[in-house]
Amino acid sequence: MNPRLVAGLDLGSTGVKVLVTDDAGTELLIEQSPTPWRHGPGGTTDLAAEDLLSTIGQLLDAVARRLPEATGDPAARIDAIAVSGMGETGFLLDEDNVVRAPAFAWFDPRGQQQVDNLPAELRDQFAGKTGLPVGVQVSIVKIAHLRDNGLSLTGLRWFNLPEFVVLSLGGRAVA
Predict the structure, then answer these.
(1) Tens-digit pLDDT profile for residues 81-140
(2) Domain range for residue 31?
(3) Is residue 174 part of a domain?
(4) How far, CA to CA in Å, does 138 sit from each of 3, 106, 113, 119, 134?
(5) I want to staple 164 with a disulfide (CB 3.0 to 4.6 A). Which of 27, 144, 145, 159 is the partner?
(6) Is residue 175 assigned to a domain?
(7) How far is Cα 21 from Cα 71, in angstroms, rounded to an integer?
(8) CA torsion sign, 80 to 85 to 88 to 93?
């Protein structure tokens, strides 16, 4: 019986990585590419959905090409995939799952005005209620920045990067 193969897809700040192991946890192969950020003035950094999905597609294609040799089985296939990554970075999608804005890097400075405009009571309680320090790295601040710069949020849903990738790979939208 062939071992079950599991792939882990990590959507990191510096790189997108795929690791394949067998069911005993033996590492069989790794593929990695830089995260396809777009850099702008003043440290702005964002990600186009199509660039992310293209990078993931290239990595998965490379894994598929290498898998028979890595396993010694020409019919080897991945049985399960797990996706992890930056939960504070994500995309707003409409009812048809069309991306309506780029994803901002957690370290992108946009949203500072929205942080500054938060009521003092909310700023004071934010970390205790969410476990996160209030700042531009917080998803809701990026969403408020988009709203304040003309994006109507009506009918949009937020998907963090792992959720978006799972949806794009055929998973169900549950956000």
Answers:
(1) 999 998 899 999 999 999 999 999 999 999 999 999 999 999 999 999 999 899 999 999
(2) 5-168
(3) no
(4) 41, 7, 13, 16, 7
(5) 159
(6) no
(7) 10
(8) negative
